[in-house]
Amino acid sequence: MARLEHPSPTAPHYAWFHCPGCDTKHAVSTSGPGCWTWNGSLDRPTLTPSVLVRTGRAVDSAWVREEGDPPDVCHSFVTDGRIQFLSDCTHALAGQTVDLPELEPHHG
Ligand SMILES: [Zn+2]
Questions:
Q1: For residue 40, what are the domain limits?
Q2: CA of 17 to the centre of ligand 1 (A)
Q3: What would the pLDDT profile of 69-94 be if each residue is shown by its tens digit?
């Protein structure tokens, strides 16, 4: 089953995956300037270079965290359907490599 959604229904030049560290979706562009290279596989995707997501206090030192906010930093390599979290992640999966979760099939 697919671990990457591409194209996204609302953004055709973006691919999405569900990040188990942030428990939210991350998107990368797959065409245009600065885009990621994708191996073309939905089941066992590889994206290069790494995916770095910075929010909250990582971009604003005055940020006040609230319940439900995503982790401040998520930095990962998606390779062959697995996600390797680098040590600079601020979530519990920092430094670990896990399978990307399978996505529910789309209906409509
Ligand atoms: Zn993440």
A1: 14-99
A2: 9
A3: 999 999 999 999 999 999 999 999 99
> What is the reported pLDDT for 11?
85
Distance 21 CA to ligand 1 centre (A): 5
Ligand 1 centre distance from Cα of residue 107 (Å): 25
Let me know if residue 59 belongs to a domain. Answer: yes
Number of domains in the chain: 1
How much distance in Å is there from the Cα of 53 to the middle of ligand 1? 7
In a domain, 89, yes or no: yes
Structure tokens that stand for 55 in this block: 């929010």
Question: Is-contact 81 63, C-beta < 8 A?
Answer: no
Q: Check: CB of residue 43 under 8 Å from CB of residue 103.
A: no
Tell me the pTM: 0.90
